[in-house]
């Protein structure tokens, strides 16, 4: 298993009412696209969160968050959150809200 299907299911349930939501498998992960922009994803047992460059420092200060450097180069505006840190629905919903705030301001693709 390349990504935690349980976390992916929880994300799908939380995001299910968003219009123009889709999923895509990429590099062994599952990502959720909103209006054509990557929003969140699951890699192994961790959450990939697109919070934007302005919110990255605050996001990295949260429990379980670390720099997203999947390619060996840190990705600006993205963080990875340990699966244990989003085990509770409230924590997962908080991360989804952070990501929605940034992606909502992006133009649709």
What does the model show?
Helix 1 crosses helix 3 (89-104). The protein has 109 residues and is an alpha+beta fold. The N and C termini lie far apart (30 Å). The model has no long low-confidence stretch (mean pLDDT 95). Strands 1-2-3-4-6-5 form a 6-stranded antiparallel beta sheet. The longest helix is centred in the last third of the chain and has 16 residues, at 89-104. It has 3 helices and 6 strands, in the order H-E-E-E-E-H-E-E-H. Residues 14-101 form the TfoX N-terminal domain. It comes from Lentzea kristufekii. This is TfoX/Sxy family protein.
How are the SSEs placed, and which strands pair?
Layout: H1 5-15, E1 21-26, E2 29-34, E3 37-43, E4 46-50, H2 56-60, E5 65-67, E6 78-81, H3 89-104
Antiparallel strand pairs: 1-2, 2-3, 3-4, 4-6, 5-6
Helix pairs in contact: 1-3
What count of helical segments does DSSP give? Answer: 3
Look at the helices and sheets and give the structural class: alpha+beta
Distance between the termini: 30 Å
What is the averaged pLDDT score? 95
- The backbone outline, from C-alpha atoms, is globular
Helical content band? 25-40%
Specify Rg, calculated over alpha carbons.
13 Å
Largest sheet: 6 strands, antiparallel
Beta fraction of the residues? 25-35%
User: Total strand count, please?
Assistant: 6
Poorly predicted ranges:
none
The topology string of helices and strands comes to HEEEEHEEH
Sheet with the most strands: spatial strand order = 1-2-3-4-6-5
Protein name: TfoX/Sxy family protein
InterPro entries: TfoX_N (IPR007076)
Domain TfoX N-terminal: 14-101
């Amino acid at each position: 298993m390349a990504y935690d299907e349980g976390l992916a299911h929880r994300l799908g349930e939380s995001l299910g009412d968003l219009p123009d939501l889709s999923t895509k498998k990429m590099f062994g992960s599952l990502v959720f696209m909103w209006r054509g922009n990557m929003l969140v994803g699951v890699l192994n047992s961790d959450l990939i969160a697109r919070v934007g460059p302005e919110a990255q420092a605050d996001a990295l200060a949260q429990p379980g968050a670390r720099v997203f450097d999947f390619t060996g180069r840190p990705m600006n505006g993205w963080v990875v959150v340990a699966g244990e840190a989003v085990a509770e629905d409230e924590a997962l919903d908080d991360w989804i809200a952070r990501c929605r705030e940034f992606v909502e301001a992006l133009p649709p693709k």
